[in-house]
Amino acid sequence: MANNISVGAAAPGCKKVDPILVADNVTRQFGGLTAVDVAHLEIPRGQITALIGPNGAGKTTLFNLLTGFDKPNTGTWIYDGKNLAGVPSYKVARLGMVRTFQLTKALSLLTVIDNMRLGAQDQPGENFLRSFLKPLWVKYENQITAKADDLLKRFKLDAKREDYAAALSGGQRKLLEMARALMSDPKLVMLDEPMAGVNPALTQSLLEHIKDLKKNGTTVLFVEHDMHMVRHISDWVVVMAEGKIVAEGPPAVVMKDQAVIDAYLGAHADTDLGTVAIKIVKDKK
Amino acid sequence: MDWLAIFNLALGELISPLTAAYILCAIGLAVHFGFTGLMNFGQAAFAAVGAYGMAIGILTFGLPTAVAILFGMACAVIFALVLGIPTLRLRADYLAIVTIAAAEIFRYLMLTSGFAGVTGGSAGLSAFNEEFRALNPFPDGEYGFGPFTFREEELWMRIVGWSAVVLAALFVMFVMRSPWGRVLRGIREDEDAVRSLGKNVFAYKLQALIIGGVIAALGGMVFVLNLSNVQPASWGTNFTFMIWTVLLLGGAATILGPIVGGMLFFLLLTLTQSIIGGLVDVGVINFLSPPQVGQVRFLIIGLALMALVIFRPQGIFGNKKEMQFNG
Ligand SMILES: Nc1ncnc2c1ncn2[C@@H]1O[C@H](COP(=O)(O)OP(=O)(O)OP(=O)(O)O)[C@@H](O)[C@H]1O
Ligand SMILES: [Mg+2]
Fold first, then answer.
1. CA pair distance B203, B211, nearest whole angstrom
2. B260 Cβ partners below 8 Å, 6+ apart?
3. How far apart are CA A4 and CA A239, in angstroms?
4. What residues in B contact A184, CB-CB < 8 Å?
5. Pick from A90, A106, A115: which is nearest to B200 by CB?
6. Model ipTM?
7. Domains of chain B, with CATH numbers?
8. What is the rounded distance in angstroms from the CA atom of residue B257 to the CA atom of residue A202?
9. Chain A closest CA to B50's CA: distance in Å?
10. What is the 3-state secondary structure (H, E, C) of B226-284?
């Protein structure tokens, strides 16, 4: 079927008109288990791409590999024209490819606002020698604090500003981690189950926020089990199963794809995946 | 028992140069463990490297004392690089193992007769503090009052030692409040999260190891300037564990913690020594011989350290949440 994202028809591993990330032959084995075996994958620039698949499909492992938190057995991947294979994770982040974790990593004994400030890159005061010269960094510090307060308000965390992150609930930590990742204005933000545990009322406003990110030119790649969210905001859906890419395409098409339904439900289901209540959130309109 | 003498002795310990030396080492360890989460069990070695560096600088290379102090600090930087570069990329436990081993290796190296021409071997080094004494600006005489009465050279040593403590504490307080310190505290909480935000975690850990190590090296120098000699036997693992006790007593992620922890530690150490010793002398405790008293008080310290970690992991000054042993 024609669309404006892929070159030609959508198919697993298809070429994109303007990819920001291109991965080739990326594999990762854990003992005898092949967790990731991606022959070819392109992530479209400036779009919201959902990466879905059953538990254990290899989504998180793929995230870890692409962001330098794990080493693949084979494979190369090019982000924004740079070969990233072997590049350490902090450099990947500095290049504008920032990820969050499925198992939330809030910095527990830092305050919420300090968590946020850490998300900013290029703070000159983070250099040891320059940290002594407060005039060199205090202006930037004020800027990032203002930006952090803005994001906290949007993520409904402003009341928790001075609390330790340890004092936040699980859902709030997820929100904090996502907000923190956005502090550096990433070019490509990779969210691993951003809405898991987040209250439905807030989900709605966060979905709007993710759409706003796209408006500002940020590329979003997210893993999610919530099919409602996938259908609601994604422009493109990539489906993984047993380490491989098994389907790709616009959400409405992919959800009806027999391979996808098989992957999720086994061979006998003949429903549209969009109606499957994996963690359905009803629109409150 | 002469209670007045006991209390005077204990109060005098509060501001003794030895206390200052331990506090400096504990401030260094606060940078390592309290702020960055580095498990350094070889703090004695950093102190020893500083002490030997300064003494060898003076005796072997004929450096002026001030330059020799800088030389000792430079030695600590190199020691930190040697320990840190291979281990800081690995999991946290590796640093613990490597530091404890490196401290013992360094001590044995100083002990062997092979390098005795430079290190003094088992006899150690002395007569390196003549210039330091000559720098004393105070005329001969007695200064102070009550338990705090010192001869001029005692006063000089205390002023130097405690100035170093104050400077180190202000320095650490200052850098920990900067964005640089914030990154360190972030690393203590979760390295991977900090990496995902684009910080070179390895470089920060190495910097923290160096800075805490250099502060400990200053502690080692104060220690040996006060004793007028450097001996390999001073820098065993018990030195390291006394520093850990001082740190945990006061609170690992605080600046005031190591200072008050150190004072309290030596106050208690002297009091228990004097009181148990006195009770042995007058025959109230008859199952201990006088030489055993010193060992008993370390037993008490060990128990105190355990109790502290179990019941008050944040120390006296720590914020309850800021420092916990969360694995
Ligand atoms: N560190 C590891 N050691 C061994 N096996 C691992 C490791 N990490 C992941 N695996 C295995 O790799 C496979 C893929 O795991 P991964 O976490 O990538 O799945 P996922 O798609 O993110 O699943 P979920 O939706 O449940 O988060 C699983 O079978 C898992 O057991
Ligand atoms: Mg996962």
1. 12
2. B250, B316, B317
3. 19
4. 197-198
5. A90
6. 0.88
7. 3-323 (1.10.3470)
8. 42
9. 22
10. HHCEECHHHHCHHHHHHHHHHHHHHCCCCCHHHHHHHHHHHHHHHHHHHHHHHHHHCCC
Q: Do B183 and A132 touch (CB under 8 A)?
A: no
C-beta A243 within 6 A of ligand 1: no
Task: Give the three-state DSSP class for A66.
Answer: helix
pTM of the model: 0.90
* Domains, chain A, ordered by start: 19-106+178-284 (3.40.50.300), 107-167 (no CATH)
> A240 with A51: CB under 8 angstroms?
yes
Question: What's the rounded Cα separation, in Å, for the pair A52 and A265?
Answer: 13
Helix (H) or strand (E) holding A173: helix A170-182
pLDDT tens string for chain B (327 positions)? 678 888 888 888 889 999 999 999 999 999 999 999 999 999 999 999 999 999 999 999 999 999 999 999 999 999 999 999 999 988 878 899 999 999 999 999 999 988 988 999 989 999 999 999 999 999 998 898 888 888 999 999 999 999 999 999 999 999 999 999 999 999 999 999 999 999 999 999 999 999 999 999 999 999 999 999 999 999 999 899 999 989 988 888 888 889 999 998 898 888 888 888 888 888 787 788 877 887 887 788 778 778 877 887 777 776 655 554 443
Q: Which of B94, B77, B85 is nearest to B38 (CA)?
A: B94
Amino acid identity of residue B148, one-letter, is: F
